[in-house]
Amino acid sequence: MTESDATESIAIKRASSLSMIVTLGGVAMLSGLLVVLTWQLTLAPIQENQRIMIEKAIFQVVSDATQRRTYILTDEGIEDVSSMQKNQKQQKLKKAGIKFYAAYDEQGQLKGIAAEAAAQGYADMVRLLYGYDPQCQCIRGFSVIKMTETPGLGDKILTDEIFLASFDALDARLSADKKTLKNAIVTVKHGSKKNPWEIDAISGATITSKAVGKAINQGAAQLLPKLSPFLQQLQQLEPSINAPEHAEAKK
Amino acid sequence: MPIKEDHTITADTFLSGIWKENPVFVMLLGMCPVLAVTNSVINALAMGLATTFVLLCSSALISMLRNFIPKEVRIATYIVIIATFVTITDYVIQAISLELYNALGAFIQLIVVNCMILGRAEAYASKNRFLKTMTNSLGMGIGFTIALLSLGSVRELLGNGSLLGYSLFGDAFQPWVVMVLPPGGFIVLGAWLLLFNWLKERKENLSLANERGTS
Description:
- The radius of gyration of chain A is 26 Å and the shape is globular.
- Chain A has one domain (47-250).
- Chain A has helices at 3-61, 86-94, 161-165, 206-227, 231-234, 245-250; strands at 67-74, 77-80, 98-104, 110-120, 125-133, 138-146, 170-171, 186-188, 198-200.
- By secondary structure, chain A is an alpha+beta fold.
- Chain A contains six helices and nine strands.
- Chain B contains eight helices and two strands; from the N terminus they run αααααααββα.
- Chain B has helices spanning 11-18, 31-36, 41-65, 74-96, 98-104, 115-125, 130-160, 182-214; strands spanning 162-163, 166-167.
- Chain B has a two-stranded antiparallel ribbon with strand order 1-2.
- Chain B is flat.
- The model of chain B has no long low-confidence stretch (mean pLDDT 88).
- Classes of the chains: A alpha+beta, B mainly alpha.
């Protein structure tokens, strides 16, 4: 190899590594631009979709409700965060807060409390929203936010009548000292439900049924004892802020 | 000198993806979404359209940039381009319907590694002009969607007794649950492959017999 050949090959190499950097950098910049543009354009409809989905779920688990407020429960008390921006809400939640929704009827009368809960199912986490009725101190129903359970087996938790009958008035009374649930909510073997705090499992979908029971038990045991001193405060929606939340969101 | 490019667009450029080189039934590419999200017609359709969109956009960009992308970093460049369009699709589907987004699960993001798309980029878009690439990619996308639909419709019909969510057989029908489960995907795919290969073989035998008959 002559000297000129060697320098030539080095020159080619340098040029190509520069062009590699330029190509990758350029493509990455173009990608970033496109992704950010799409994100900006789709942000509003996505948030609107999420709001509709949560609202639908709340009104499904709390019957007769027509409006809702979002609260965060911390050690200091409860706070209405309905009109807060999302990042503010997240900051509040970071202080060991629990988010829940209070659902009201047209007259602003409290109809129930809805909160999220999750537990490991057969395929992945089962995330659901349960509805608590303070009047009877019981769980009135649940709605699945996200699950990837086997179609035809695990997703029977949405349709199985005997299983769903357990949620007509699932007992969630507090113990005498109001620190825990009086009876832990459990899923029992199909056909062996005896007490109002038991959930009748679906045969063939035991793991998913158990996940629902576990999620609600954990969620309720965490939220309800802490929430009970404030229930009176939530009873009536203040008339001054009576505007339903979706009107604010649309602005 | 590079090999001279053939720029002519024939009907075959478009049709090869639908029949002769169908990505699913002939090349057996992208089996993961094919088996996983074809448990209903609507999922299959959404997945097919999403994949077609990503395929078309990425092929277009790669074809336009093909003379500027150095050979050494071509795969990395392709993946970045494909990932961009997958992210865009991801946001758009969330904006259209969260229910659909949840039903498709992780498979939207997994379009990034769909070997059909990378295969098209490497084997076609990087070697052909814009229009020819688009024609071919459109054919491939449609072929992929048709394949997903043919699996999805059979599986929904047998496993749920419905098509596009409309119940067809009434309450007396006992759904064949295995069809919407993963094994059903394999069974239906196998049945379709059997049918297509049988058709192909029959055609070949016929043309062979014709040749013998005339000579």
